[in-house]
Amino acid sequence: MSTAPRFRSSEAQERFLSAYDAVLGSWPVPVESVDVPTTYGTTRVNSCGPHDAPALVLLPGGGATSTVWLADVERLSARYRVHAVDTIGQAGRSIADGRVARGTGDLTAWLDEVLGELGIERAAFCGHSYGAWLSLTYALHAPQRVSGAVLLDPTRCFGGYRAQYLLRAAPLFLRPGERAARGFLEWETGGATVDEGWLEVTARGTAGYVPKIVDPRPPGPELLRRSAVPLLVVLAARSRAHDTRTIRERVRERAPHARIHVLPTATHHTLPLAHAQEIDPLVLDFLA
Fold first, then answer.
1. What whole-number distance in Å separates Cα of residue 79 and Cα of residue 262?
2. Residue 2: its pLDDT value, please?
3. pLDDT attached to residue 5
4. What are the backbone dihedrals phi and psi of residue 76, each rounded to the nearest 5 degrees, phi first?
5. Which residues contact 180 (CB under 8 A, 6 or more apart)?
6. Could you write out the three-class secondary structure of the chain?
7. Considering the entire predicted model, what is its pTM?
8. Largest CB tally within 10 Å, which of 6, 43, 86, 154?
9. How does pLDDT run across 73-116, given as a tens digit for each residue?
């Protein structure tokens, strides 16, 4: 068992949680927050929507926290019981004080427990970036529990990162700080407007939290081809994380049953916040 605090200091923790709670408090729908016990630690799930509606699990990109779904939850929760999860071992209100998640099997086991504690037998999944990889990984692990998966500009699912993206991201790990986090996001988004409250959460989380991230290993092509789980892959045409054309071709090759939609003005990190009005109808139409 690991009980070591993941925040660099109590001050860093307080600053992060203050920003997190401010964004969560600005969600346009009532939120029910619950701390779910698992073998890997306590998992924060922020839920909204009718209790008797089908379940939709939202998984954020690395370090983005569940607050990143601010612009999506109103439309999505009109039809679904939405469960926005803080990924264990990453910045958020989840507390990784249990067994350390070291591999893909640990993350799928963790999600098994989260769904079990929430009483969810079957759910749709929607994830961005690392959360898209996790959504796909879980769909391949437990297809009977996944009614469909939406992958928003997925990373390490159908191809790797651009070298330039990795070089730009390196300072976030070597010398993490709020200024570095903001500079990286401004570079990738081309200076596009992204919610300031969420930027503050992400910057403070990058500077103040020491993540334990499981390396996202791409699924095998044959496993993807055999999967019957419905997939919608939404790609950002201006993504600097990877080459969109290459990813699109690999989706067609390895997951021929998947629907593909390209957002012409989106970058990797303007998703999902800045393009919720485009994304949400795609998600609702696909899952329907």
1. 24
2. 42
3. 60
4. -70, -35
5. 171, 172, 206, 207
6. CCCCCCECCHHHHHHHHHHHHHHHHCCCCCCEEEEEEECCEEEEEEEECCCCCCEEEEECCCCCCHHHHCCCHHHHCCCCEEEEECCCCCCCCCECCCCCCCCHHHHHHHHHHHHHHHCCCCEEEEEECHHHHHHHHHHHHCHHHEEEEEEECCCCCCCCCCHHHHHHHHHHHHCCCHHHHHHHHHHHHCCCCCCHHHHHHHHHHHHHECCCCCCCCCCCHHHHHHCCCCEEEEEECCCCCCCHHHHHHHHHHHCCCCEEEEECCCCHHHCCHHHHHHHHHHHHHHHC
7. 0.97
8. 154
9. 999 999 999 999 999 999 999 999 999 999 999 999 999 999 99
> What is the share, in percent, of the chain residues with pLDDT greater than 90?
97
Give the pair of three-digit tokens for residue 17. Answer: 């949680």
Which pair of structure tokens corresponds to residue 247?
A: 């990813």
C-alpha span between 234 and 153 (Å, rounded): 6
Task: Look at the alpha carbons of 133, 138, 140, 143 in this order and tell me if their dihedral is positive or negative.
Answer: negative
